UniProtKB/TrEMBL annotation:
<keyword id="KW-0813">Transport</keyword>
<feature type="transmembrane region" description="Helical">
    <location>
        <begin position="234"/>
        <end position="253"/>
    </location>
</feature>
<feature type="transmembrane region" description="Helical">
    <location>
        <begin position="193"/>
        <end position="214"/>
    </location>
</feature>
<protein>
    <recommendedName>
        <fullName>Amino acid transporter transmembrane domain-containing protein</fullName>
    </recommendedName>
</protein>
<feature type="transmembrane region" description="Helical">
    <location>
        <begin position="274"/>
        <end position="293"/>
    </location>
</feature>
<feature type="transmembrane region" description="Helical">
    <location>
        <begin position="359"/>
        <end position="379"/>
    </location>
</feature>
<feature type="transmembrane region" description="Helical">
    <location>
        <begin position="62"/>
        <end position="79"/>
    </location>
</feature>
<feature type="region of interest" description="Disordered">
    <location>
        <begin position="1"/>
        <end position="26"/>
    </location>
</feature>
<feature type="domain" description="Amino acid transporter transmembrane">
    <location>
        <begin position="34"/>
        <end position="439"/>
    </location>
</feature>
<feature type="transmembrane region" description="Helical">
    <location>
        <begin position="112"/>
        <end position="133"/>
    </location>
</feature>
<dbReference type="GO" id="GO:0031090">
    <property type="term" value="C:organelle membrane"/>
</dbReference>
<dbReference type="InterPro" id="IPR013057">
    <property type="entry name" value="AA_transpt_TM"/>
</dbReference>
<keyword id="KW-0812">Transmembrane</keyword>
<keyword id="KW-0472">Membrane</keyword>
<feature type="compositionally biased region" description="Basic and acidic residues">
    <location>
        <begin position="13"/>
        <end position="26"/>
    </location>
</feature>
<feature type="transmembrane region" description="Helical">
    <location>
        <begin position="322"/>
        <end position="339"/>
    </location>
</feature>
<feature type="transmembrane region" description="Helical">
    <location>
        <begin position="385"/>
        <end position="407"/>
    </location>
</feature>
Length: 452
């Protein structure tokens, strides 16, 4: 297997005929075995399940349980359609990366736009991950009231369990080693563990909810949105960025496809991953909203800072928060991988493959880790910014760009169904996200200037 097929953004063809020693080096890095079906499912599932799962119960509070679950299924089906079109156009254009498909359809400008969107999306997401990890382990005071972290609750307040030191140790001990892998398939075991930790979170949440249902301390949740005026109607669209972000995995699919032992398996891999993640999302949304009802916070993990009113509630709170902090630590390298490759493609488009240049690989990795670490320490709460990212860069990666590729149809393979679906995806994405941006901006303005 040629390692040039491994990066998300494949480099120019002139590298294909480099000397034999470099090809041997590439084969040594890639290994002789292709990625397995199961390992690929875990890697795509880990690309999908991240911080989005924490915000989904809050979307149920906005949409109601019935409409909310329907929207999760709808976005999953739409995601599968966009990925199917993307992979089909990749095959006919002999493109081995998302960037190549964009370049094939729209030239260098298309590839550049994709790279910028992936940088914005992944940097923002990784900073959010690190902020959540800091909140869980060291606590937060960003909302005005102090919420103690797990380490502070166990050992009291000390310099070594402060936010900056804990995140520094996490970056050096966990993120840096995992960021050193040059093949995504090398992360299959950590990805499997990450999915398992997300399921543990789900099982505990479901268990707590069922216990509280039996003791009669949970009210029946709303099935439909609570629409009272035009503002509440616009508010429904603010969940769109959360739903889109929850299913985004497009920037890793080509890498996983290129590493598969049988590339014809990529569509079943994608479908299995989306089905698995949809089940986890629906059950988490259902039990999370059922458990906390109208008190559900934007980040449901923050709800596990309160008295659950059941035996061993404090212990279960800690298990839930720690399991999800560990999950995010293991998701981190899956999103870091395409971030590094796209930044390298943006800065050094004509250089030799990144996997062959250890100095460049190391410097880019260190620079990005430092950027994310500083962002997580100096930005106390970026959920609003995360919503803006989801409404712009993320929706472009997930829906607008794949639909635009199908409408451009340089190879004449788009069906009438493809074109209708593409127009629908672009129209829905643009309209709903313009409303989401307006609603978020209006809410932010009213918060800062309440008398205006």
């Amino acid at each position: 297997m040629n390692e040039e097929k491994s990066p998300l953004l494949v480099l120019p063809k002139k590298h294909e005929n480099e000397n034999e020693h470099e090809h041997e080096h590439e084969h040594a890095i890639a290994g002789n075995e292709g990625a397995s079906f199961t390992g690929s499912v875990f890697n795509i599932s880990t690309s999908i399940i991240g911080a989005g799962i924490m915000a989904l119960p809050a979307t149920m509070k906005v949409l109601g349980l019935g409409v909310g679950i329907g929207m999760v299924v709808f976005v999953a089906v739409l995601t599968e359609s966009s990925l199917e079109m993307l992979l089909r156009f990749s095959r006919v254009g002999k493109s081995e990366s998302y960037g190549d498909v964009m370049r094939d359809a729209f030239g260098g400008v298309g590839k550049l736009l994709l790279q910028i969107c992936i940088l914005l999306n992944n940097v923002g997401t990784l900073i959010v991950y690190m902020i959540i990890i800091g909140d869980v382990l060291s606590g937060t005071s960003s909302s005005g009231a102090h919420h103690a972290g797990v380490l502070e609750g166990w050992f009291g307040e000390h310099w070594w369990n402060g936010r900056t030191f804990v995140l520094l140790v996490t970056t050096i001990v966990v993120f840096a080693p995992l960021a050193c892998f040059k093949r995504m398939d090398s992360l299959r075991y950590t990805s499997a563990l990450a999915v398992a930790l997300a399921i543990i979170f789900l099982i505990i949440t479901a268990g707590i909810t069922i216990i509280k249902l039996f003791n009669g301390s949970i009210a029946m949740p709303r099935l439909l949105p609570n629409v009272t005026d035009i503002t509440s109607v616009w508010n429904l669209f603010t969940v769109v960025p959360v739903l889109v972000t929850a299913f985004i995995c497009h920037f890793n699919v080509h890498t996983i496809d290129n590493e598969l032992e049988d590339s014809s398996l990529i569509r079943p891999v994608v479908q299995t991953s989306l089905a698995l993640c949809s089940v986890v999302y629906i059950l988490t949304s259902f039990f999370g909203f059922l458990l906390f009802g109208e008190s559900t916070l934007d980040d449901v993990l923050a709800n596990f800072d309160t008295n659950l009113g059941i035996p061993y509630g404090s212990l279960l709170n800690d298990v839930v928060r720690i399991s999800y902090a560990l999950h995010l630590m293991l998701v981190f390298p899956i999103l870091f991988y395409p971030l590094r490759l796209n930044l390298d493609g943006l800065l050094f488009p004509s250089a030799r493959p990144l996997v062959l240049d250890n100095l460049r690989f190391g410097l880019i990795s260190i620079g990005l880790l430092l950027l994310v670490f500083l962002g997580a320490n100096f930005i106390p709460n970026i959920w609003a910014a995360f919503q803006f990212t989801g409404a712009t860069a993320t929706v472009c990666i997930g829906f607008i760009f794949p639909a635009a590729i199908a409408l451009r149809d340089r190879h004449g393979i788009a069906t009438k169904k493809d074109k209708i679906l593409s127009v629908f995806m672009i129209a829905l994405a643009v309209f709903s996200n313009m409303v989401a941006i307006y609603s978020d901006a209006y809410a932010l303005f009213k918060k800062n200037y309440p008398q205006a």
